[in-house]
Amino acid sequence: QVQLVESGGGLVQAGGSLRLSCVASGRAFSSYAMGWFRQAPGKEREFVAAIGRSGAYKNNADSVKGRFTISRDNSKNTVYLQMNSLKPEDTAVYYCAAKTGVVAGTITSYDHWGQGTQVTVSS
User: Fold this and answer.
1) What is the pLDDT of residue 15?
2) Are 107 and 47 in contact (CB under 8 A)?
3) Is 33 left (phi over 0), alpha (psi -120 to 50) or beta?
4) What one-character-per-residue DSSP string does the chain give?
5) Which of 56-60, 103-107, 118-122 has the least mean pLDDT?
6) Ramachandran angles phi, psi of 62, nearest 5°
7) Contact between residue 22 and residue 50 where contact means Cβ atoms under 8 Å apart
8) Chain mean pLDDT for the chain
């Protein structure tokens, strides 16, 4: 079992940056592939980015490519999401998720979820 706690959300103007963090506790962090997802009001939860267990493999949704970067520090049990050039349409609750095995971009592949952190981008 792994517990996930996100932080770093907030209010930012369009064009600004934020870095989200997700700290994991419980079983060995390096045994989990990690993902970031988001859910805007009235919309389905969607994939944002994922990273493999060693950090060598990364994948981003097309909507955030070139703007968001996922990374992890296994020594700190932490995964990050650096978000640059933020747009109002990035406004959502951002969730960290963990799964055993290889990285995936589907919500149902992930077994463990954090409580989410709100990101609001003003125009």
Assistant:
1) 98
2) yes
3) beta
4) -EEEEEE--EEEETT--EEEEEEEEES-GGGEEEEEEEE-TTS--EEEEEE-SSS--EEE-GGGTTTEEEEEETTTTEEEEEE-S--GGG-EEEEEEEEESS----GGG--EE---EEEEEE-
5) 103-107
6) -60, -35
7) no
8) 95
The token pair that represents 66 in the structure block: 């070139």
Q: Find residue 113's DSSP bridge partners.
A: 97
Angstrom distance (rounded) from CA 50 to CA 18: 17
Q: What pLDDT does 101 receive?
A: 85
Structure tokens at 43: 């919309």
Q: Which two tokens stand for residue 24?
A: 């994991």
Q: Look at residue 26 and tell me whether its pLDDT is greater than 80.
A: no
